[in-house]
Every structure is written in structure tokens, then in C-alpha cells.
Amino acid sequence: MRASLIQIAVEEGESVENRRVRVGALVREQAGADLVVLPELWTTGAFAYELFGTEAEPLEGPTYEAMAKAASDAGVWLHAGSIPERDPEGPLYNTSLVFSPSGELAAAYRKIHRFGFDKGEAVLMGAGSELVTVRLPETVIGLATCYDLRFPELFRGLVDAGAETLVLPAGWPERRRSHWTLLAQARAVENQSFVLACGTAGTHAGVPQAGHSIVVDPWGEVLAEAGAGEEILTVEFDPARVAVTRDQFPALKDRVLGLERPRRAG
């Protein structure tokens, strides 16, 4: 299976519409890939909080239309990263879109864990509540976004739902890049899954981005890693290795579920 992670540079001075056109062209250039992945909130920048409201769009808005056409033109499965989605009956959401090679929407995932604690995304956007997987011809992908990477229980849920390849778009800051690499490898090892994590380059509202998109195999080995700038990271991998790894080292069978909370002494 061939995957291309497009590590987009999001910089001030480029309009959202121009970036949509540019990214659509980059997706079309990946014809021949099985899966193309874009980063989180690449239309606005993950830390450009003031743009969330002004650039929010309905699910089937201009980014949806542009990426559906790009996926169809290239004939690829496209994880189109995420957009600030405006729900007409609710709050904003950080929503990922996955398109089939015919340009049909295969899935949408609203980010469950919002970053910012008491500011930014955490207060400007609503939280999703559903785990989402998508069956591709070669593998089942499980969807997560950026800050989700810090919460292993989400990925366990995706594995229980059949996920074999974990796909994660992000706008991860450079100052925590060591966590990005460490956690991507940890999620791969503990779930015996491939991890495809696609970040952004550039600077979002003064926050330098980590870049370093990464592909990790079920043993935690890094198959490919990008640099800091805009880059297309392409890698060939064999999804069948997930089943082989889980069979050779069946650690997932030893999970102990439903443990009681510890009682307080005294």
C-alpha cells in the first residue's frame, strides 16, 4: 500500500481560498497512491483561533467540494485533514473528512479531545463523541486528530472497532516535537498498528509547527519521517503486517478489562 502524507506549510499572507487551490493540486499530483493524508486545520492553522469563526464552513462547504474533486481526479482515498466545521444547530467542530476515490464522503470525524485547557480550541469548539473507522480495500483506518494522540484509550477503542492503521492529522507545535514522535511510536506499539501522522509546517499565529510527519509500523519502527518544512512524505507499507504482528506477539489478548477503582486505605 502506498501512502502520501502532505505536510502543508500554513503561513500568513496566503488566503484560505488560494491554499485550497494549491492543496488540491498537490493531491492531484499523488495519483497512483492508495491513500493521501492532509494535516489538521490546514485551511486556517491550528493556532489561528481568531480565524476559526470567520473561516468556519458547513460540512459540505468549499473545502469539502474542493477535496472531493481532488480525490476523484487523482483516484485516491483522501483523508482531507480537518476543517473548522460550522454546525447550523450547534457549536463549531474540528472535523476531519475522508473521501473515496470516486469523491464520495466516506466518513467525518469530530475531534474528541480539544486542546487549550481553558482557552483556544477547548472553548471555541465542541467535542465530538463518536469513534470513526473506515474500511479501505487494503486496511481499516481509525481516525484521530492531533491532541487525541495523548489519550491511549481512544486508540484502544479504535482497535476494538477493527482499526489496523491509525491516521492522525495534526497541527503540532515545534516546542513539543519530542512528544509527537514518542507518542506516535507508543500508539503503534501498544496497538500493534501502523500509525500515519501528518503534521503542518510553517507558523500558525506565531506558533512554529513541528512538521516531522511520521509513519510507524506495528513494532514501533519508523518507516519514514519528514523534515520541518513543507514536504510530501511517501511510503510503501504492507497492511498484512498488522495481523502477522498480532499473531506472533499476541499482547492484545492479555488485556484485562473492567478493573474496579482502587479503594482508599483507611
Question: In summary, what is this structure?
Answer:
This protein is of the alpha/beta class and 266 residues long.
What are the main properties of this structure?
alpha/beta, 7 helices, 266 residues, six-stranded mixed sheet, Nitrilase/N-carbamoyl-D-aminoacid amidohydrolase, hydrolase activity, C-N_Hydrolase
Question: Could you characterize what this model shows?
Answer:
The structure is a single chain. By secondary structure, this protein is an alpha/beta fold. It has a single domain, classed as Carbon-nitrogen hydrolase (Nitrilase/N-carbamoyl-D-aminoacid amidohydrolase). It contains 7 helices and 15 strands. The chain has helices at 16-28, 49-55, 62-74, 121-124, 152-160, 177-191, 240-248, and strands spanning 2-7, 9-10, 35-37, 77-86, 92-99, 105-110, 133-135, 140-143, 165-169, 194-198, 201-204, 207-208, 214-216, 222-225, 231-236. Strands 6-5-4-3-1-15 form a 6-stranded mixed beta sheet. Strands 7-8-9-10-13-14 form a 6-stranded mixed beta sheet, with helices on one face. Strands 2-11-12 form a 3-stranded mixed beta sheet, with no helix packed on it. Helix 1 (16-28) runs parallel beside helix 3 (62-74). It starts with a strand and ends in an 18-residue tail after the last helix. The model has no long low-confidence stretch (mean pLDDT 97). Belongs to the carbon-nitrogen hydrolase superfamily. NIT1/NIT2 family. GO terms for molecular function: hydrolase activity. Residues 1-239 form the CN hydrolase domain.
